[in-house]
Amino acid sequence: MSAAEEIQEDAAAPARVRLRFSPSDIDVKVPGGVTVFDAASWNGIAIDSTCGGHGTCKKCKVRITEGDVPVSKLDSRAFTPDELRDGWRLACRIQTASDLSIDVPPLSTRPKAATVGVGRQVILRPAIVKRHLQLEEPTLSDQRTDLQRVLDAMDDLELTAPIGVVRTLGRTLREAQWDVTAVIVDSELIGIEPGDTTGRRYALAFDLGTTTVVANLLDVDTGTPVAVRSMLNKQQPFGADVISRISATMMDPDALAKLQELAHETLGGLADEAIEAGGIAREEVYEVVLAGNATMTQIALGIDPEPVGVAPFVMTSEGYPGLRATDLGVSIHPLAPATVFPSLGAYVGGDITAGILATGLDRDRRLRLFIDVGTNCEIAIGNQDRIVATAAPAGPAFEAASIKCGMRAADGAIEIVKLTDDGVELGVIGDAEPIGMCGSGLVDAVAELVRTGVLDSSGKYLTDEEAAERVPGLADRLATIDGERVFMLHQGDQPVFLSQRDVRELQFAKAAIATGWRLLLEELGIDDGEIQQVLLAGSFGSYLSAASAIRIGLVPKLPIPRIVSAGNVAGEGAKMAVLSIQERHAGQALIDEIEYLELSDRADFNDRFVDELAFP
How far is the C-alpha of 477 from the C-alpha of 241, rounded, in Å? Predict the structure, then answer.
């Protein structure tokens, strides 16, 4: 029976039911038959989910404190008998038929994320320019228009002025007694300010990720960061990956507008936080630069992403000129322009363009491999002579979304695993009691199980007899739960384990990535031993153990010092584009310089993928 079929129909459901959510203390009325998950989403209440409410991730856990809700088959798999008696249910399985009071566990909106990354020094030459002007007042013999008077004072520049500037120009000039500062971005005059404000110029650089969004507030006068903020993308309830969110827009005509609204709430909220932390006026922020994948960018702009998600995978546009910050939901200077990094392809987006710019992949003589590890893994390899890039469908394993005890990188998540002869040593975020494992913990755990022989090269656990003979100190951690072989990482009140299915999920993810970079190497006609550096980018790549990545075959077998955690290189590229027009143009030029290799139409992809499933 499918997850959708499992929801019981209730013909006698009332027209409307009342739902009270705590601890937010929000009371809502919804049509009978609507799931609690959907009701919460409609009313801005965040419930954890990575499958978009389709009943596959089992993460939308809520507790019914008042009212009667039957136990579904999925509930019985997700909770212990004691938890079920205590009212715990999956929100996506609860089809409302009566009034309910629901306790929603707090969603971690501040996961452990990389906010900085590998970058290069740049010559400070921002697009934002200020000119202090002390103008002569008009006379009967000098009746030039106010705008012409301003433009004549800057006759070395060819400027345009939008109507938003012209509307208030006359009053501003006269109230300031003709002592003003012109604000210019690129070749557009976006503001006239009273007095001399030339020392105050700020801009925002965003990394718009599927999972995490990072905002950098920069002082472009000095090139230094003023504030950095990050949070989970508020689109998470619609699914953990871009395919889930594209699917949502295909199934529900209202989903695109809601997803765009959530993107704007995320970007706008981060901007507000950074500006408040920096202690500046929002009108002093004159520009936005954004790096994001093609799907996230199109959704943020309200562009239907469906063509990106179905063959032949076509974007609406590789770039979007003429944008304002308001088009992204960011409230700063009312005429602030927005620049979005162009995408190489439907699944190699502007975040990768920005990352390649930041790492200088196109300027280095060394042959380097760039991997942005995530649900959709982007890969590039090359040097100053040639760069080829592709995307690999890694799935949500690295976000721990499809893992039985998986969770985001928040307090209580196991992030480091070390197996000894007689036990397990764990590193836990926040030094808290373990309640789950994040992506880096998953990779560590599997790598250690492979190293110690608890998992064989095919990814299969030892039998009890084999474990007792080969790894006696770890044998008692092998168990069977719900008919599935597992390894117990933590045996406390809330056990954390790695199931056989979890291992398979990681194998599928690492095989997709390894297939990608091997095919790129073949395209260049080189051997993996010729790679001089591997750059692991993104929030996940920042915390991934190089030794573990090599052990499971995620990256080529190279000396560990050659494997570098590059961090948030998309954010670094966006910052570089804020601080230097030259770097911005270089980023835009990468579109014509990088060759994109589509894997989905290769006849040998599946065979090559299968070859990479085994552990080295």
Answer: 33
